[in-house]
Request: fold
Amino acid sequence: MPQLKVAIAGLGAIGLRVARAIDRGDIPGLTLVAVSARDTAKAARNLEGFSVKPQILPLAELPALADVVVECIPAAYFATIADAAVGAGKVFMPLSVGQLLKNMHLIERARVSGARILVPTGALLGLDAVRAVAEGQVFSVKIVTRKPPAGLKGAPLLTERNISVDNLTEAIRVFEGTAREAILGFPANVNVAVALSLAGIGPDRTRVEIWADPNITRNTHTIEVKSDSSDLNMTIANIPSEETPATGKITALSVIAALRRLTAPLVVGT
Reply:
């Protein structure tokens, strides 16, 4: 089987787990050739046990070595790796999906360069069904996100409005609006809402509610879709990552599953 060369931008909770899976040979047909991280010394330590150590490179240099570039870095660095990967005609797999709304030119650029932008399902569910009903007429899409308060701390909108999520005794709704508005106020929390909007009826028609709930321990998303072919009501409750409470453990697994589809002889789902 021809080997696809993979580079990973970011070696946090998601990137490192994906890197380890590739290095172990868990995903046939993939080879890890390069990574990028802000703390190169820490990255080198994390890679010590790898059977084949990838190169540690600056973000912009990753696409030169790889066929596939996986992005799992803070949103502030998104444009650097996205422009480089898409401009080089690579397969680009972004986790900071919300940043696509600020960089929609990448779609046209990918059309010219031959790149493909593949968005993993991430911490959500049902995007296959949403894409399917969007081929017909969709009347409404709504996502309600509930997170333990710790998973929302530090969000720009909470800081801007001086909203505290400390010492809550009951759930409070901290946001209601569109997916486009939600990602501006919660760039680390609602990439799922943007992914949903891109699969369905767009960021300006997709409605979002965000709740800080001290009575739950899992990041929970409920999707409600009404269309001329199906009405969907789906809920997923994700176990938060120990390293990053805002991120569910399933996110890294979703990336691994998306990478597996690139070389699998059988692919299930649209």
